[in-house]
Design brief:
Oligomer: single chain
Shape: globular
Strand content: under 5%
Largest sheet: 5 strands, antiparallel
Helix content: 55-70%
Order of helices and strands: HHEEHHHHHHHEEEEHHHEHHH
Structural class: mainly alpha
Distance between the termini: 104 Å
Strand order of the largest sheet: 6-5-4-3-7
Radius of gyration: 43 Å
Length: about 525
């Protein structure tokens, strides 16, 4: 009876969690398009010469929202009357929609897991959130068909689901604690690829910023010529800010070697500018390199992918100290492929068509930048990974500890004592044993004391002479201020003899004295 009662409750709880996740996805889509609509309507209200009414502003907001997901748009109000494609995505606009989908998927598992309901599976959460989001996106695509910026159908069917599912998958991965593959090589390759990607994009942003600062005069003139009133300048400024991530990708592509296209037949690479660029007047495009062959300042951009490959290979090498050389090389090559795949996707989003004819190709070519990233990682990252691994596996030489000054002085005294000639041993009585060479004869047994105790034996003349010689040696020149030799006697015995005069383990010792 208990199992029959709990089964529908569990199933109902799971279906409720999936429905809630679907609603979360729809709400995320509505928040994204609502934020852009508020921004566009504010610009339309502040404009002194609006070209259209509120409907046109809403259609523009819908087109910008789709463009933020990588969807190509089609401009219908051109001067020639022919539709022109618009495929350059302002990548900063994509941050808000992606973050909203990510948060919706993450909260789906966090809320369900912390409550009494049975949480949905990872794939179920991704599908539910993405499904709710795409339902709203489909309505936006249909609504945008009647506006000045309709979506291109093939691009909407390809890029929109890919971006939404990827962001939802990232949210579920975050809710699960960001687990990495159990295989150590795969986890190390992912970490190294992330480090190389961050370094590459950061270096590309630095290259673009330096070039823009170098051409600050041209950029300011282009900015002032686009709009005269403050509302138009504010709109241009917002567009410049939205295109700053694109500028970083362009700088990375320039440093990688393939560069980027400026219209059909025009290329900008570190070697120089080839062809006649068809760049429209825009502040960021003022940072393009000048005509002619490139100099050392242009070639210095190659330091960006070089640094990224070095850090990427070093990260793999530090993790591969216990691996074989083959596994290390394959891991470094996998990191290069992973970084190249992400760079290719970002290059495809950062570039695209701006119109027809010569403006049909504008920005980095995705397969060229991706292939160049893989080549940098394979040619530089793999040898660096092997070198760091070999350096980490070396066996350091054992270093002898420094000898203290006191121990050094004692060693010198013992060496001097060992170099002194040993006096001949006296001949013992006929009835007694003859001691070994270099050994003092055993002292005679002392008579018993009044209480029956053994009195301490008297030191032999030879032992007393050797002790006095050792004291004289220590108290020689240079030892006037040092303590006497008796301070080194641990037993405070006048018959103490240095260890150099004791028999070694392989020498025959003196036999015990005969009983009285």
């Amino acid at each position: 009876m208990t199992h029959v009662t709990e089964h529908p409750l569990v199933r109902g709880g799971r279906y409720t969690a999936l429905a809630t996740a679907c609603v979360r996805g729809g709400v995320a889509a509505g928040l994204g398009i609502g934020a852009l609509a508020v921004l566009v309507i504010a610009g339309w209200i502040s404009s002194p010469y609006p070209d259209s009414g509120p409907g046109g502003a809403l259609h523009l907001a819908a087109g910008l929202w789709l463009l933020a997901h990588g969807v190509d748009l089609v401009r219908t109000d051109t001067l020639s009357g022919l539709p022109a494609p618009l495929g350059v995505v302002p990548m900063l606009l994509a941050v808000l929609p992606v973050w909203l989908v990510h948060r919706a998927a993450r909260d789906t598992l966090d809320t369900a897991g912390g409550g009494v309901r049975r949480p949905p599976s990872a794939s179920g959460a991704v599908g539910a959130v993405a499904g709710g989001y795409l339902l709203v996106a489909a309505a936006v695509v249909v609504y945008g068909e009647s506006g000045p910026l309709p979506a291109e159908p093939l691009s909407a069917g390809l890029w929109l689901p890919a971006v939404v599912v990827g962001a939802a998958g990232a949210g579920v991965w975050t809710a699960l604690g960001r687990p990495l593959p159990e295989q150590r090589q795969a986890a190390a390759a992912l970490r190294a690829a992330g480090l190389g990607l961050v370094t590459l994009l950061g270096g590309g942003a630095a290259v673009a910023a330096v070039s823009l600062a170098w051409h600050a005069g041209e950029a300011q003139a282009a900015y002032a010529g686009l709009a005269g009133e403050w509302s138009g300048r504010a709109a241009v400024l917002l567009l410049v800010l939205a295109l700053l991530p694109n500028m970083a990708v362009w700088g990375a592509a320039y440093g990688l070697g393939p560069g980027f296209t400026l219209g059909t037949g025009a290329f900008a690479t570190p070697l120089g500018l080839v062809g006649d660029p068809a760049a429209p007047p825009f502040p960021l495009l003022a940072a393009l390199p000048d005509d002619g062959r490139g100099g050392w300042i242009h070639w210095a951009a190659a330091a960006v992918p070089l640094t990224a490959a070095l850090l990427q290979g070093g990260r793999v090498g530090r993790s591969a100290r216990t691996w074989t050389a083959r596994d290390t090389a394959l891991t470094a090559l996998g990191a290069a492929w992973g970084c190249g795949a992400v760079v290719a996707v970002l290059s495809a989003a950062a570039g695209g068509p701006l119109g027809t004819s010569r403006l049909s190709a504008f920005g980095p070519v995705w397969w060229q930048t991706g292939a160049a990233t893989v080549l940098w990682g394979a040619c530089v990252g793999v040898p660096v990974a092997l070198g760091v691994r070999a350096w980490g596996r070396r066996v350091p030489r054992a270093k002898r500890p420094p000898v203290p000054a006191e121990a050094s002085a004692v060693q010198e005294v013992r060496a001097m004592q060992a170099a002194r000639p040993v006096p001949a041993a006296p001949t013992g009585p006929a009835t007694g044993p003859v001691p070994a060479a270099g050994l003092a004869p055993p002292p005679p047994s002392a008579p018993d004391g009044p209480d029956g105790e053994k009195a301490p034996p008297e030191p032999s003349p030879a032992a007393a002479g050797r002790t006095a010689g050792a004291k004289a040696t220590v108290a020689g020149p240079g030892f006037d201020d040092d303590p006497p030799y008796d301070a080194y006697d641990p037993y405070d015995d006048s018959a103490f003899e240095p260890y150099d005069y004791l028999p070694a383990a392989w020498e025959p010792g003196a036999p015990p004295p005969p009983p009285a």
